[in-house]
Amino acid sequence: MNIRPSLVDRDTLVIDLNSPVRSLGTTVYGGGLGYIGSVIFKRVDKCFSNPSPQAYAGEIARSLGRESSAVFLTASDVSQYIYSEAEDSGVSVEGIATIGLTHPACIGGEPESRAIGTINIFILTSEGLSDIGLADLLRTVSEAKAGYLSILGLSCRGLPAVGTVSDATLVASPGGSTDYAGLGTLVGQLASRVLRNIFRSHMSSRGLDDYMRYMGYEDRDNIHPRHALLKRLELLVEEIMGIDIIPWLDRGAAKEILRIIWRISHG
Q: In a 3-state reduction of DSSP, which class is residue 237?
């Protein structure tokens, strides 16, 4: 295990690494392309409105004696972080995340003001990636995250969500010459497996009410899991037609499918 997480206090999770690694990410501090020796997850208030989050995060890193860190800010409970690891053929990928699925970021919707809820993901691989490879891994993690959330059914007003409006992602590697880390590679598949385990762990700690809320349904009283699945299918049909990305699909057939789902759920 190359990731060593520890809670400094109830609002601060520090992840020390065995040695400095090359990193690429979107964290407010320690983001971009560089080297890091640790990662910090800092819980902030949901109404966090510091005019300079970068300066705030930098002060957090300095106060912990870890200037060469990347800092995530989140309103999620950092003590509920999720760890996952996948390994195959001598290649390992480790991940730590905090998951907050409020303020979904939806395709085709109106821009929203920045809010703190946040899916924060840190991925470390043993594969020696070049800077191009790190960029490819960041792409892979972003694609996998969006895919899993779309399957989950995270939604706002019937539009599919691919994350939240304040997500941050960081990927890291010891450095090397491998340029490829997409889903057609071992490291890319291991990263997607780690993400799948993270989201599955998150959902295992959530109930049916939360699942219905993620899909945007307000009326969640006395819902049976069977009905939740039917609601998910209903939402999928609505999303396909709402995004209108397949123009030759028959809208009449879609309406008939929705009527069938309604009859099954009320039968």
A: helix
**Torsion over CA: 110, 210, 25, 198 (sign):** negative
Please enumerate, as own/partner, the contacts of 61-65 that have beta carbons within 8 Å and a separation of 24 or more.
Answer: 61/29, 61/30, 64/8, 64/12, 64/14, 64/40
Other Cβ atoms within 10 Å of 124 Cβ, number = 27
* Cα 239 to Cα 189: distance, rounded to the nearest angstrom: 27
Q: How confident is the model at residue 118 (pLDDT cuts 50, 70, 90)?
A: confident
- Reading the block at residue 131, the tokens are 């800077």
Paired strand residues for 35: 22
Give pTM, 2 decimals. Answer: 0.92
* Contact residues for 44 (Cβ-Cβ < 8 A; gap 6+): 11, 73, 74, 75, 116
Q: How far apart are CA 98 and CA 117, in angstroms?
A: 10
Q: Among candidates 72, 89, 94, which has minimal Cα distance to 198? A: 94
How many angstroms separate the CA atoms of 213 and 222, rounded?
A: 14
Token pair belonging to 110:
């109106």
**Residue written as tokens 């690694």?**
21
Q: What is the DSSP letter of 127?
A: S
Highest-scoring range by mean pLDDT, 40-54, 152-166, 167-181 = 167-181
CATH code that applies to domain 3-206 = 3.60.70
Cβ 88 vs Cβ 190: under 8 Å: yes
Q: Which residues of 254-267 are buried (b: 16+ CB within 10 A; e: fewer)?
A: eeebeeebeeebee
Locate CATH 3.60.70 in the chain: 3-206
